[in-house]
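Bench notes, afternoon.
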Amino acid sequence: MRWRLSGFVDEAAPTLRGQVRLAQAADLDAIELRLALGRPVLRWDDRTVERAASLVAAAGLGVSCVATGLGKQEPGLTPRAMLDDFQRACDVAHKVGCRNIRAFSFRVPEGTEDRYAPLVTDRLGELTTLSEGADVVLLLENEKGTVGSSPERCAAIASDISSERFRLIFDPANFVQCGHRPATDAYPLLRPWVAALHVKDADAHTGRVVPAGQGDGQLPELIAALKADGFDGTASIEPHLGLGGRGGPSSPSRWREAANAFRALVNNAGLDA
């Protein structure tokens, strides 16, 4: 059994051409489109999007996700602006031959997550309805500082929206940083909706990100559970090793180190990637 491997190559290569080269050097199947030359994907003009599509196709790669920052704002963002950005994300996805669009569950003050959950579910439900007409899938990433920072709230959102066009990205490091055990507590609750894995581990004491298997993200146990469930989504390397594990750019060699650490875990589980 082989998992499709993708990655946030923009962390170690600022240009589109450099990102494609790094993806090839790391033997990826696809890349995530997030940033190029400091500009987020939703702010690329059509020419840049078309160039990305051309470079990716020429390299024999795919695009696994249009990794937008939708939902990293406060939930008071005007619906019109949110819907316009989502429509742009759909346009980009169609141009690069991808069906997945990443989103978040809106930033809210700590302690107010439950109060904002109904509004956030409504907002994400609106985007899901649009997804059905645009032939795309909305992927929600669990993220600290958002309503979806806990497994329970992620499960409630997914259950309430209840659509094949709404699925979850499982980020173990983000759960660790929020005080949750990814394989023990989060995955059993979220398994019906998990469609993608972000390969990122973290130390529970410091909160810093480390290569897969070197932190408290329970990556071996998580990989075993995904394998047992017949996971057929995409695993995306997101090293976040820059700035001492606090995120930000890192070197290509550190990026490949993160990819190799995950491959070793996958191979130990009797899988290929």
